[in-house]
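quick q for whoever's on today - can somebody do inverse folding on this one?? i tried earlier but teh output was garbage lol. tokens:
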């Protein structure tokens, strides 16, 4: 019936396909656009031979490039100061006027137009997905932006025209702009129908040249065809939309949708994309824009027509073929980093090349620079001379300059004269000083010479010996020092410094020469200036004749000034000559002193003095003799070591002679001495042995006791070493190594704990589902009672709570598979569904292991208005994701999530008080997680004291004096039977003035304080029973507060911890003890008030502050509150003193590599709802483009359609098992090699210790391997095999500490090979610095001891887990029983209500010849009568009653020509249809199915109106429900 593929002979002749796959060449696009393109269309424009005019900013760009090359990498301030050239008006370039719009996908959306893209000319957004679009500039849309809607619409019309031409196999005889008018007669549409359905479907096509009413038959053929192929009603236009041009865009939209539908069915090709490839004139665009504006119809979303169609027909959207532009853009994006690096390298090369060129040019021009500078200086000098000549015209400036010059000459002359005088006196003064120094030096020298001559011989010898010793020592030291590399380097450095000093000296000498030449240069400059001045003077002499008198007076004044200055200089010179005169006087005094000395020498030469000199000489000779004696003693001391050595050698020789004689004698008597010694030793040993044996026999019992005590002490010491983990001996390891093996009891306990854990998770899910169903039933019953209809949903809810058989499960899977749901089955053959399932597994794994995403989601949604609506969903999904913290891995990850949430909350707080008063968004999740463990802790801690409070007789803790006063007054009236004269309502202070009231008030406060003390005592003594999760959250809260507010007092930090520990966990149990199974019955009002008073006291104490004026009745107990605050604060700090989660759960960086993540039980609807929330807040959760969460969500490609039929929703509400997988796992462990070495080393060391035990590990390793050792090793392997056969069903432990000691990997080796491997691994660890042989490889023994300790901790932890899980199962069973009783009561109510409703039903009678009568007869004739009836109303009637509010594109005056049909063929489902009778033709405008559940939910949400048919019609919700209930 249908033709073959759309390829026709006409289309086959087309020469090429454009890159958009439209089937048309680009050259034919101008014909599609009616041939109205400008004459300068590319390919037809006449080339211009004239060169283009130079750019006005050419100079600025060249300058900017030079600045950029010079200052690469940082902005230059000179670049902003570049000279700007005003742009000259230029003729428009025809190439810039081309209508070229390459792509509208690569810009921002136009405001107010969905999926409409804004085309920019020079501004490209930073996040543009199409980098090729950055290469396109000068877009036509920049100047025609206001016509973009009309342009895009005409492009979509051209797309429809091209597609119709491809289907018809020929070209249409009109252009794009005329296509709307040509479609009105329906001829083209009828021909299109004939192509697909043949002549039988369209026998005759009415083709009159003038538009006639009979042309509507052609359009009706098209309507029949599109409904036949299954095009949804929402895409089909009305007859008047085309015939009367009321909504032509919808006609084009319908053609687009039809092309996509036929392409899905394989009947036609998909419509192309011509946006940006067509050209229209401004008149055409403006005319089209006016037509769209006058029509007032909304523009359909052509870009999303494929997805909308797939959504309506419940099929997966087709993947669009990648176009050439998209492929080019994808390749550019993939290579973006390498392109950027290449560009950077190219820029760097160009910059370096420009710098090298610039340096070379500067070097080449260096010799010309001095010449240029000289020329510049000459030009400047000439310029200054010219300026001076111009200024000389004025006499006054010239005279002032002349006077200044004259003064300068005189001053310089006087200064030079003074310098000459000083220079003339310098030689004489130097000579006098030199003579004086020479006389003194010669006198000293003569005295020294005389003393040296007297001791010349001895001094020379001493000097020679000293020089020799010093020379030898210095030579050795220098040789040693020079041999060191450091000294050699220092010498080299010293030489470098010396060369530097020489160079600096040379530069200094050159500088000195320049300084010496400076006066000549200055004189030359002065001569030049003098010549210039003289020339000026000669030129001005003629002008000075008339001012002779003035000059004479000036000269006189100058002479006077000079005379005064000479006098002052003379006075200053005399003052400066004073030191010279003082020096001369000193010289004269020295001459007189020398004369007196000569006279003294002449007096000493007389006879009297000679005798005295003789005695002096005798004494000198004695001194010389003593000196010679001392020299001789020194020589003897010098040779003393040699003499002593000779004496020692002699004594040694004598001793050796005597020793050799004794040695020879002993050697000759050796046999006799040996026998004698052996006999003596034997006698002594036998005597000692007999004594010891007699002693042992007499004390045998005591010896046994001592041995047992010693062994016990040694075992305790070994166990202490094992627990401490330091310096563990080999014997300790050998004695306790059996603890590393899993026994049968351990295996059974592990299985039991796993079974209990799975049962607990299952029960929690069941209770959660029951609780959700109970709350849902509450709401639905209330809505149904309000509307007196629709119990079908309750019946479904009741059915959903029944047992789920295998058949129902298979049916549910088939429903999910039919809709392409990825959760239909994990073994599905649908690649798309399987890939989505893998992505969801990876998504929830990322959410589980990285708590920052859930924390950010909680924080973001907590600030939104719909928080309460999504709160339960979020909490339920989080608890399901972490398995309610029942397994160690999941509990560890949940605690890490709480840690991240706590730190984020504290970081966002501005003060400590904000944390104390805040209500965290995650607190409900924490409460649900800790509730099973909290119940046991609360019951063990508070059950006794709370029951004492409840059982106390006449206990009244009322602390309000006003209430006490009122109660006493009422009691008196009751006893007396008469009304009291005292007022009942009195103020606080007035009530206290009553003596009885005050006494009662004081007594109540005392009793309240006593009970509070009891509660404080039991709470502070319960630290060891508190669950670890509660203490860990307290620890993280305290650490976060201290990190954020380091100066906060301890009481404030304790209050932050109390907000979590006391207020969230302990206080609810005090207020409502029956919810924690502390009491079996409901607490009476009086006891609850007493507990509330105690709770208020404890709350105030934990807040860290005393009672204020707002609670005056509690102010008297502030002393006790102050004392208790310190006690509670210390207890809260101790609560937070707990190890971190990594230590508690033995978690490490590669936890998931050793422990498989557990699957979670979650419904597909919960998965999709979570997906929706994550997608809505993706920018806040994962701002980075490479973020893991963003990558997964982008690959998921949107949230699936959640809205479906009842069967699909019911299938998606059932929980499924979702396995978690890690897509981004790091296969490479940076410490894997080291860990492997540790494992292999520990395994081999244990094998050695089993076969060759010794004192330490080194001794065991050094022992040789014998055949006996090999036999022992084979026995160990056989014993292991027998144990494995006995316990075949036992699975090996999965923990890293246990798997390290299994011998499967080394069982095939001999013991010699095992020992060689152990030595190799120990040496490798020693190379890495992990262990050392200096301590006997103690590190490996400590590591093994740590594994033994962790194994014991695991057993204790498993025991606690078992007790906790059993207790949790007990309480979960009680809660389940409670929920089942509630649901049973609801079922009874539903059955009663349904029976009542059934009795009230009756059959309605129809009045003959009414609209409803004919409507019912017509349906009965056609056999289409709905099961629950069908009712027909006019739209005008609904509008008059207020039920109908509006119909889009229609005014109320047209409602009388429209009918609304309301029918129901299924329980709770109502079908709405709208028919239009305009022009005498009945046309169904729209149809939709509405569920009663949706109507009730909308009413529950207080919505006033309800939009149907995709917003086409709007109804009053309450009146519509009333009308439905009425019928």
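ok took a stab at it. sequence:
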């Amino acid at each position: 019936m249908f033709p073959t593929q759309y390829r026709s002979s006409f289309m086959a002749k087309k020469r090429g396909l454009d890159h958009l796959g439209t089937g048309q060449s680009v050259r034919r696009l101008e014909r599609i656009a009616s041939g109205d393109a400008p004459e300068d269309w590319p390919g037809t424009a006449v080339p211009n031979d004239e060169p283009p005019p130079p750019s006005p900013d050419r100079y600025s760009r060249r300058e900017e490039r030079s600045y950029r090359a010079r200052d690469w990498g940082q902005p230059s301030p000179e670049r902003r100061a570049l000279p700007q050239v005003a742009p000259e008006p230029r003729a428009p370039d025809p190439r810039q006027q081309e209508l070229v719009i390459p792509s509208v996908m690569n810009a921002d959306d136009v405001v107010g137009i969905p999926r409409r893209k804004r085309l920019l000319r020079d501004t490209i957004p930073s996040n543009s997905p199409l980098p090729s679009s950055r290469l396109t500039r000068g877009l036509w849309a920049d100047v025609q932006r206001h016509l973009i809607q009309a342009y895009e619409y005409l492009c979509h019309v051209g797309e429809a025209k091209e597609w119709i031409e491809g289907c018809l196999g020929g070209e249409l005889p009109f252009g794009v702009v005329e296509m709307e008018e040509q479609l009105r007669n329906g001829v083209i549409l009828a021909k299109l129908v004939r192509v697909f359905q043949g002549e039988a479907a369209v026998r005759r096509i009415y083709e009159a040249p003038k538009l006639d009413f009979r042309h509507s038959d052609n359009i009706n053929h098209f309507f029949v065809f599109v409904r036949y192929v299954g095009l949804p009603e929402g895409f089909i236009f009305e007859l008047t939309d085309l015939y009367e041009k009321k909504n032509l865009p919808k006609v084009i939209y319908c053609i687009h949708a039809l092309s996509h539908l036929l392409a899905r069915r394989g009947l036609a090709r998909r419509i192309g994309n011509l946006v940006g490839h067509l050209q229209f004139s401004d008149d055409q665009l403006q005319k089209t824009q006016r037509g769209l504006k006058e029509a007032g119809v909304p523009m359909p979303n052509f870009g999303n027509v494929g997805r909308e169609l797939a959504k309506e027909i419940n099929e997966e959207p087709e993947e669009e073929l990648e176009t050439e532009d998209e492929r080019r853009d994808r390749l550019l994006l993939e290579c973006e980093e390498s392109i950027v690096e290449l560009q950077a390298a190219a820029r760097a090369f160009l910059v370096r090349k420009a710098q090298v060129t610039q340096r070379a040019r500067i070097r080449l021009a260096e010799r010309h620079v001095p010449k240029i500078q000289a020329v510049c200086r000459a030009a400047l000098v000439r310029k200054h001379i010219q300026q001076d000549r111009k200024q000389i015209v004025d006499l006054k400036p010239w005279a002032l300059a002349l006077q200044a010059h004259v003064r300068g000459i005189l001053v310089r002359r006087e200064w030079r004269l003074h310098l000459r005088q000083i220079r003339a006196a310098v030689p004489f003064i130097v000579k006098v000083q030199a003579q004086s120094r020479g006389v003194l030096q010669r006198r000293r020298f003569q005295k020294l010479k005389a003393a040296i001559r007297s001791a010349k011989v001895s001094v020379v010898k001493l000097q020679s010996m000293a020089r020799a010793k010093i020379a030898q020592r210095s030579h050795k030291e220098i040789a040693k020092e020079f041999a060191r590399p450091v000294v050699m380097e220092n010498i080299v450095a010293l030489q470098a410094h010396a060369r530097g000093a020489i160079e600096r000296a040379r530069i200094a000498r050159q500088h000195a020469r320049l300084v010496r030449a400076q006066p000549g240069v200055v004189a030359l400059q002065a001569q030049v200036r003098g010549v210039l001045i003289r020339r000026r003077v000669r030129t001005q002499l003629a002008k000075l004749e008339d001012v002779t008198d003035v000059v004479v007076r000036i000269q006189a004044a100058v002479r006077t000034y000079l005379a005064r200055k000479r006098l002052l200089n003379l006075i200053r010179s005399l003052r400066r000559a004073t030191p010279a005169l003082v020096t001369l006087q000193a010289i004269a005094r020295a001459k007189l002193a020398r004369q007196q000395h000569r006279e003294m020498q002449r007096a000493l030469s007389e006879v009297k003095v000679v005798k005295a000199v003789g005695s002096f000489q005798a004494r000198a000779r004695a001194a010389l003799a003593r000196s010679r004696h001392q020299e001789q003693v020194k020589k003897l001391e010098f040779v003393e070591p040699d003499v002593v050595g000779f004496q020692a050698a002699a004594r040694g020789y004598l001793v050796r002679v005597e020793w050799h004689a004794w040695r020879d004698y002993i050697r000759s008597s050796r046999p006799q001495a040996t026998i004698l010694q052996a006999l003596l030793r034997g006698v002594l040993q036998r005597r000692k042995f007999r004594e010891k044996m007699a002693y042992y026999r007499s004390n045998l019992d005591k010896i046994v006791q001592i041995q047992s005590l010693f062994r016990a002490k040694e075992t305790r010491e070994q166990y202490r070493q094992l627990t401490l983990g330091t310096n563990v001996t080999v014997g300790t390891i050998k004695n306790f190594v059996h603890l590393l093996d899993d026994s049968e009891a351990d295996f059974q306990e592990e299985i039991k704990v796993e079974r209990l854990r799975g049962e607990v998770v299952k029960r929690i899910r069941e209770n959660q589902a029951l609780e959700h169903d109970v709350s849902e039933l509450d709401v639905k019953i209330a809505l149904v009672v309000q509307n007196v209809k629709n119990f079908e949903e309750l019946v479904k809810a009741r059915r959903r709570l029944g047992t789920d058989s295998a058949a129902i499960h298979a049916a549910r899977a088939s429903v999910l598979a039919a809709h392409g749901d990825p959760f239909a089955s994990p073994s599905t053959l649908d690649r798309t569904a399987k890939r989505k399932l893998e992505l969801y597994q990876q998504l929830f794994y990322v959410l589980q292991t990285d708590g920052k995403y859930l924390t950010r989601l909680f924080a973001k949604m907590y600030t939104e208005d719909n928080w309460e609506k999504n709160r339960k969903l979020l909490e339920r999904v989080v608890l399901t994701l972490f398995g309610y913290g029942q397994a160690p891995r999941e509990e560890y990850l949940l605690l890490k999530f709480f840690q991240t949430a706590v730190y984020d909350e504290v970081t966002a707080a501005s003060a400590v008080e904000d944390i104390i008063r805040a209500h965290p968004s995650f607190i409900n999740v924490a409460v649900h997680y800790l509730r099973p463990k909290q119940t046991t802790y609360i019951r063990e801690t508070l059950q006794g004291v709370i029951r004492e409070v409840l059982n106390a007789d006449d206990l009244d803790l009322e602390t309000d004096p006003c209430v006490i006063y009122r109660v006493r007054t009422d009691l008196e009236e009751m006893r007396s039977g008469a009304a009291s004269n005292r007022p009942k309502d009195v103020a606080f202070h007035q009530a206290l003035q009553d003596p009885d009231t005050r006494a009662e008030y004081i007594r109540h406060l005392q009793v309240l304080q006593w009970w509070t003390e009891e509660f404080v005592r039991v709470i502070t003594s319960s630290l060891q029973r508190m669950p670890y999760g509660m203490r860990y959250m307290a620890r993280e809260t305290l650490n976060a507060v201290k990190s954020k507010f380091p100066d906060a007092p301890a009481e404030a930090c304790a209050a932050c911890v109390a907000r979590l520990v006391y207020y969230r966990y302990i206080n609810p149990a005090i207020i409502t003890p029956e919810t924690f199974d502390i009491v079996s019955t409901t607490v009476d009002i009086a006891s609850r008030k007493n507990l509330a008073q105690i709770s208020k006291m404890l709350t105030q104490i934990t807040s860290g502050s005393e009672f204020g004026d707002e609670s005056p009745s509690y102010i008297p107990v502030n002393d006790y509150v102050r004392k208790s605050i310190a006690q509670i604060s210390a207890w809260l700090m101790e609560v937070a003193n707990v190890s971190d989660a990594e230590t508690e759960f033995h978690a490490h960086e590669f936890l998931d590599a050793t422990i498989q993540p557990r699957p979670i039980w979650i419904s597909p609807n919960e998965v999709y709802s979570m997906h929706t929330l994550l997608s809505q807040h993706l920018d806040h959760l994962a701002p980075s483009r490479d973020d893991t969460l963003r990558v997964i969500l982008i690959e998921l490609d949107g949230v699936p359609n959640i809205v479906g039929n009842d069967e699909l929703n019911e299938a998606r509400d059932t929980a499924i098992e979702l396995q978690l997988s890690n897509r981004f796992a790091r296969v490479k462990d940076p410490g894997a090699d080291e860990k492997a070495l540790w494992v292999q080393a520990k395994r081999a060391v244990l094998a050695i210790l089993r076969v060759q035990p010794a004192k330490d590990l080194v001794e065991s390793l050094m022992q040789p391997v014998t055949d006996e050792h090999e036999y022992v090793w084979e026995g160990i392997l056989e014993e292991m095999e027998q144990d494995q056969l006995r316990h075949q069903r036992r699975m090996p432990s999965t923990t890293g500490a246990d798997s390290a000691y299994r011998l499967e990997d080394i069982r095939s080796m001999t013991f010699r090979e095992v020992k060689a491997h152990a030595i190799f691994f120990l040496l490798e660890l020693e190379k890495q610095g992990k262990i050392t042989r200096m301590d006997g490889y103690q590190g490996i023994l400590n590591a093994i001891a740590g594994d033994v300790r962790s194994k014991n901790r695991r057993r204790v932890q498993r025991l606690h887990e078992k007790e906790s899980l059993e207790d949790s199962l007990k309480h979960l069973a009680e809660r389940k029983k409670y929920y089942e009783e509630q649901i049973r009561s609801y079922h009874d109510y539903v059955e009663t209500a349904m029976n009542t409703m059934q009795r009230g039903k009756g059959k309605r009678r129809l009045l003959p010849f009414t609209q409803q009568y004919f409507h019912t007869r017509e349906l009965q004739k056609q056999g289409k009568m709905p099961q629950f009836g069908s009712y027909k109303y006019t739209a005008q009637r609904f509008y008059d009653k207020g039920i109908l509010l509006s119909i889009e594109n229609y005014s109320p005056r047209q409602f009388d020509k429209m009918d609304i049909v309301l029918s129901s063929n299924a329980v709770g489902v109502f079908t709405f249809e709208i028919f239009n009778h305009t022009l005498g033709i009945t046309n169904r405008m729209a149809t939709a199915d509405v569920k009663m559940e949706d109507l009730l939910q909308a009413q529950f949400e207080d919505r006033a109106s309800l939009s149907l048919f995709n917003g086409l019609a709007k109804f009053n919700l309450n009146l519509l429900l009333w009308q439905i209930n009425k019928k």
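fwiw The longest strand covers residues 1458-1466. also The mean pLDDT is 76. so keep that in mind when u check it
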